Automatic annotation (TrEMBL):
GO cellular component, one term: cytoplasm
Domain BAR: from-to ranges: 1-178
Name of this protein: Bridging integrator 3
Subcellular location: Cytoplasm, Cytoskeleton
Native source species: Balaenoptera musculus
GO molecular function: lipid binding
PANTHER family: BRIDGING INTEGRATOR 3
Keywords: Cell cycle, Cell division, Coiled coil, Cytoplasm, Cytoskeleton, Septation
Source organism, top-level taxon: Eukaryota
Coiled-coil parts of chain: 67-94
GO BP terms in the entry: actin cortical patch localization; cell division; developmental growth; endocytosis; plasma membrane tubulation
Keyword Cell cycle set for record: yes
Function: Involved in cytokinesis and septation where it has a role in the localization of F-actin.
InterPro entries given in the database record: AH/BAR_dom_sf, BAR_dom, BIN3/RVS161-like
Length: 199
């Protein structure tokens, strides 16, 4: 929007009416200056929001692939653990013969490191996921505060810019009601022209 406002003010400056009427040129020049100030502050606000909100959000989002991989590794460890646990249970249900006992012992030995691996991965996720979840507010709060401050500064400056512009364009001793009546009279004259279509 600010880029469009700057374009409009530049187009008005290049309008031949500015060459014919010094008062109009002064008004358009004041508008152009205000629009350029508005655009500069808008760009400042965009840059600040980029640094303080968008980039931190991207960094926060980059954590999710690592979390997903940790969850997938835990799920894979759980599947391996269940598979070997089922194997142990199968041998425990069989008749206790020499070969079955040997296979049972071997299956239990295979199960131990897989169970330990699963329990370690599971414990890590159970410990870290709640901390990650609860820390998101601490992470985002400064970004949101910065966003609010950037908006407050921007709109305060816009108020000042347009207040200054209003002061520059105001004609002393001419109340707003009179200004509106004169503009309405000019519009009525234009509407009365035969080249203006009546819709």
């Amino acid at each position: 929007m600010s880029k469009s406002a700057v374009k409009i003010s530049l187009d008005l400056l290049s309008n031949p009416l500015c060459e014919q009427d010094q008062d109009f040129l002064n008004m358009v020049t004041a508008l152009d200056t205000a629009m350029k100030r508005m655009d500069a502050f808008n760009q400042e606000k965009v840059n600040q929001i980029q640094k303080t909100v968008i980039e931190p959000l991207k960094k926060f989002g980059s954590v999710f692939p690592s979390l997903n991989m940790a969850v997938k590794r835990r799920e894979q460890a759980l599947q391996d653990y269940r598979r070997l646990q089922a194997k142990v249970e199968k041998y425990e249900e069989k008749e206790k013969t020499g070969p079955v006992l040997a296979k049972l012992h071997q299956a239990r030995e295979e199960l131990r490191p897989v169970r330990d691996d699963f329990e370690a991965k599971n414990k890590q996720l159970l410990d870290e996921m709640p901390r990650f979840y609860s820390s998101r507010l601490d992470y985002f709060q400064p970004s949101f505060e910065s966003l609010i401050r950037a908006q407050v500064v921007y709109y305060s400056e816009m108020h000042k810019i347009f207040g200054d512009l209003t002061q520059q364009l105001a004609q002393p001793g001419r109340p707003d009601e009179q200004w509106e009546r004169e503009n309405e009279a000019r519009l009525s004259e234009l509407r009365a022209l035969s080249i203006v279509a009546d819709d």
